[in-house]
Amino acid sequence: MSEELENKFLDLCHKYPSGLTQQMIEVSLGHKMEEIVKVINNLIKQGRLMIIQNPDETTSYKEINPEDQSKFRGLGVEDFLIYQLIEASSNTGAWTRELKNSSGYQQVQITKILKTLESRKLIKAVKSIQSGRKKVYMLYNMEPSREITGGQLYSDQSYDHQYIQIMKMHIKTFVENKGAVDFADIITYLRKVAEEATSQSLGPEDIQALVNTVIYDGDIEEMRDTRMGMMGRRSGVLYKPTKTPIPVNNFCNMPCGNCPVFDICSDNGLVSPKRCVYFKQYLEQDDESLDF
To answer: What sections of the protein cross the membrane (predicted)?
Structure first.
């Protein structure tokens, strides 16, 4: 009887892949709840059934894919709840504090569950650029969102300065060689360069951030796209080499130009040009090292 009931239960799971409520089970199977509970517990132990806690505090059951059953085998109700909360967080992940508040479990218990789920490669920890070294947890095969990783311009949650400088140089050179290009041209070129150099694929947001940086550096500038297209005059933006370089304020190169105690500096004060170590070093520079 139990094997027959188990097959009926699994057939019902196939019919409702999003999950079975207790009411659906009672109405559809027509067996005593005691017998059904035994089947459910047996399937959970085998890793073939997942427990789902619904917002209305009811419980549903969902069949686990055969290829994942070994990972879920032996997990308890608490494990499934934390897994479900992490699954709901999608690609932004869940903080341990969020898991604690949503589940009501103690931190020690949550830490133990997270280690279990990580060891089974059901979830993974990802460092978030938004909060230093703090981690968020998401499903193992989930690709973290850009707001978590920072995109391809970040390496190990910090700006990859060397990579950024190389990409900026490519943008500057490309615009100078072409004379005037639109954003689509830059995307096509830079994606090709990035994939050939690092096998990375830059997104439009990453490329736009790089272009903006090159503009701020004064190497390229925007201009209105007045070319004629198939649908008439275009209204986009072109990028061209900058004709007017950004002027250099040499006063800022002097220690006095960015001194935080400039306002209290005087000839006879505690802070004075005579006692300033940085001013002395500046005056001792060779003429070639001074940028005038």
So the answer is: none
